[in-house]
TrEMBL record:
HAMAP family: NAD_Glyc3P_dehydrog. SUPFAM superfamilies: 6-phosphogluconate dehydrogenase C-terminal domain-like, NAD(P)-binding Rossmann-fold domains. Sn-glycerol 3-phosphate binds at residues 109, 137, 192, 245, 255-257. Pfam families: NAD_Gly3P_dh_C (PF07479), NAD_Gly3P_dh_N (PF01210). The keyword Iron does not apply. Keywords: Cytoplasm, Lipid biosynthesis, Lipid metabolism, NAD, NADP, Nucleotide-binding, Oxidoreductase, Phospholipid biosynthesis, Phospholipid metabolism. The gene is gpsA. NADPH binds at residues 15-16, 36, 53, 109, 141, 256, 280, 282. The active site is at 192 (proton acceptor). This is Glycerol-3-phosphate dehydrogenase [NAD(P)+]. It catalyses: sn-glycerol 3-phosphate + NAD(+) = dihydroxyacetone phosphate + NADH + H(+); sn-glycerol 3-phosphate + NADP(+) = dihydroxyacetone phosphate + NADPH + H(+). It is found in: Cytoplasm. Catalyzes the reduction of the glycolytic intermediate dihydroxyacetone phosphate (DHAP) to sn-glycerol 3-phosphate (G3P), the key precursor for phospholipid synthesis.
Length: 349
């Protein structure tokens, strides 16, 4: 069987799962999309549209949409996981017997607490022995679904799995680059959501272009410092899953994290800002988790600390901005932050 014809399943019928499934079906890959809710699945089959999460996008008639997990996963060789991080483990636990032996690709950009676990690490725990990869990059679902020219990254320590994903997913509108830095790619996708909230907030305040550039650049420095400390490859942060995803999420009002930040900047409470969205904004939970981890690890993350102070410690916005702007003026590029930590350094701590 050619790699293009292997049966593929996408778990999760939100905006990203639907987009991926539609692209795969459009490549003539036998694709099934699994949703937990039969009413929603039936509506999508009847209308040929995901009216709740991706209105206006025609679904490929070859796409099979089902709420029956056994039907969805029978014979599948590759499974894309597009479930929000808060439900990720429980869905895997529920479906684990149907997933073993298949190539499992997480597309979820969140972190689980306790343990500071990436989604692919949860996959390893819940489906032991399965080949695991992550897909991440500047990938706003709505643009991809509309056929905008896009690039993404598939990351795994299994080059064959990377190649299979490139074969099924790549198409005239989507280039799929490969990486061996699964941890860095996955961490990049989760971290940038926090800075998208800050950028949205800044936009609502009407800041200028200098400010926007300062924010994105210092966000990149901060997230790279943290990720490299944690063992990621610094070069990953110069790629699509690092600076690439940071740029799109910090500049597009299509980003849900940016939208939450914008609503916060307009003076809405966190609860209101999240409720208005009606979709997942992973950055809110990632902020909590990251603040705690950066303190435990002693990594300097002033933007994360500042946003945490505003959202969770009720500190006045202007006070936090004043503190950030009057902090010690340091070097622009800290080369030490970009030096990969050797495994032995980690072991000695
Ligand atoms: N939407 C986007 O542009 C992109 C999203 N992602 C990531 O993909 C993940 C999923 O996001 P979206 O699809 O955008 O979210 P969404 O908010 O559009 O949809 C979430 C979907 O997950 C389903 N779901 C929630 N709990 C479930 C459970 N227990 N069992 C089964 N299904 C459940 C919901 O019913 C819904 O269909 C997130 O981690 C997000 O960061 C990654 C790249 C782009
Ligand atoms: O990850 C994304 C783009 O790459 C989507 O970002 P949001 O979850 O903020 O919409």
């Amino acid at each position: 069987m050619s790699d293009l014809k292997v049966p593929v399943t996408v778990l999760g019928g939100g905006s990203f799962g639907t987009t991926l499934a539609n692209l795969l079906a459009g490549n003539d890959v036998p694709t099934r999309l699994w949703l937990r809710d039969e009413e929603q699945a039936a509506s999508m089959r009847a209308k040929g549209e995901n009216a709740r999460y991706l209105p206006g996008v025609r679904l490929d008639p070859r796409l099979v949409i089902t709420s029956d997990a056994e039907v969805a996963l029978k014979d599948a060789q590759l499974v894309f996981l597009a479930i929000p991080s808060g439900a990720f483990r429980s869905v895997l636990q529920q479906l684990a017997p149907l997933l073993s032996g298949k190539g499992l690709i997480s597309t979820t950009k969140g972190i689980e607490q306790p343990g500071f676990l990436m989604m692919s690490q949860i996959v390893e725990q819940e489906v032991p022995g399965a080949p695991v990869a992550v897909l991440s990059g500047p990938n706003l679902a709505r643009e991809m679904a509309a056929g905008a020219l896009t690039a993404t990254v598939i990351a795994s320590d299994d080059p064959q799995l990377n190649a299979r994903v490139q074969a099924v997913l790549g198409c005239p509108s989507l280039r799929v680059y490969a990486s061996a830095d699964r941890y860095g790619v996955e961490l990049g996708g989760a971290l940038k959501n926090v800075y998208a909230i800050i950028s949205g907030m800044a936009a609502a305040m009407g800041v200028g272009e200098n400010t926007r550039s300062m924010l994105i650049t210092r966000a990149l420095a901060e997230m790279t410092r943290f990720a490299v400390h944690m063992g990621a490859n610094p070069m990953t942060f110069l790629g699509l899953a690092g600076v690439g995803d940071l740029i799109v999420t910090c500049t597009s009002s299509m980003s849900r994290n940016y939208q939450v930040g914008y609503a916060l900047g307009q003076g809405h409470s966190l609860e209101e800002s999240v409720a208005r969205l009606g979709q997942v904004a992973e950055g809110v939970n990632t902020l909590r988790v990251l603040r705690q981890k950066s303190e435990e690890e002693g990594v300097y993350m002033p933007l994360v600390a500042g946003l945490h102070a505003i959202i969770f410690e009720q500190q006045p916005l202007q006070e936090v901005i004043g503190r950030l702007m009057s902090a010690e003026q340091k070097h622009d590029v800290e080369f030490s932050a970009f030096m990969p930590r050797r495994a032995t350094d980690k072991e000695q701590q």
